[in-house]
Amino acid sequence: MRNRISILWLLCGFALVTAKPIHFYQVGETTPPKPGLAGNGITDIRANSTHLWFGTGHGLSRTANSGDSFASFDQKHGLGRGSISALWVSGDTVWVATADDTLTAVSDSYLDMGTGLSVSVDNGQTWEHYPQPGVTPIQNLTYDIAVFRNTLWIVSWGGGICKSSDWGETWQEAAPDSMLFNPGARLNHRGFSAVATEDAIWIGTAEGINRSRDNGLTWAHFTHTNQQQPISGNFVVALAYQKTADRRIIWAATWKAEGESETYAVSKSEDDGLSWQITLQDEKAHNFAFDDSVVYVAADNGLFKSIDYGQTWYRFPEIIDQQSGERIYSRDMYSAFARDNELWAGTADGLARTINNGYTWKIFRAFNPAGVDDQPRTFAYPNPFSPFRHNVLGEDGYVRIQYNALRFTRSTIRIYDFAMDLVRTLVQGEPVVGPGDFTEVWNGRNDYGDAVANGVYFYSVELEGDGTYWGKIIILN
Questions:
Q1: What integer best gives the mean pLDDT of the chain?
Q2: CATH number for the domain that contains residue 462
Q3: Full-model pTM
Q4: Buried-most residue among 149, 150, 293, 438 (CB within 10 A)?
């Protein structure tokens, strides 16, 4: 989403844009927060002294007890429609940006749109929702949020870079240079990331990194070509600030843009951007986390750790919950959070936590219970399923088949094609200690190891002493 070419470019406007709150939510007066994790695509993780907050593809979640329980917020609770595209937490204040897809007259395909910003100043007890700044939200969604000297900053692709000095009531365009604000024509006005330090606001764009010490009045601009020791690439999708007892470091996920010499890597600076060191070469990084001097990077090829400020890296192996047998069926890591030897990993296939450096993990996943509240006894997700795009780990993607067992039993699960010919036997007489929900996974291959063709497939879940329950999976590559 961050590197799509925009079809429609939008501006925040050359004057102040008023964005009065359009919805107010009071916990207890309407719908209480929903129990459980909101979604399995974990886009961001933030923390305050009482809660961990998680941005997901289906809303905002929080936990106060290391994942023993979750409470989740969505559109019914004062947030915008869709997924969480940006999250900022400090003290009892939580800012959330949301985004969705929409079909418009300018294109035959779906375009990303921002569905607004929501803020709580009492740790989620009440929320105010503001519309997305700009003339229209199409291709204008907020990718990151930062606060510097009581000024709120947001960055987006189509809407560019905007700031508010009155906590979201009004917005002003903030070109990170001396040029006329125009995200449609200027790469450096298309924002992707933001972070604040004690003395500067940093903005990552489609044309490098910008730093301002005076809240946007003047800027320094760092690109792949304007320094002797430059960043690896001009597409800056994430920024982070690490402060230890003896170091202050700006970290950047710098992707290859248009220059032939640019590369995907992580760039870091310990002298306020005057020079950059390149590390984790050829990796597409998405996010950073720090536990004092330890650095974590969430990237396309997994979760990385460095104990020497990026000189060397260790990649965590496959994440498996030894207690439940669950595993993360994805190599894509979107987010991470670390504190006091506790590490959280946000993936495309759920959330994981370790307190012993990855030797053991606990996996948390959102799901709808089968067989309750008029739900069927079995269902499959994601559905439609693409073995080349969904939950990819190694050479395969995986679809989950979830079912409910009422008591101890044995399960047999089979896959059939549209002609009801047997394609694959997943499990045969597997003991199941019910009652509860259970899952098996299918990699879209038949019993001979061959990938199946696109089409409709049926599956049966046979529970000994209970019955046989049927479901359908659509394979679409």
A1: 90
A2: 2.60.40.4070
A3: 0.87
A4: 438
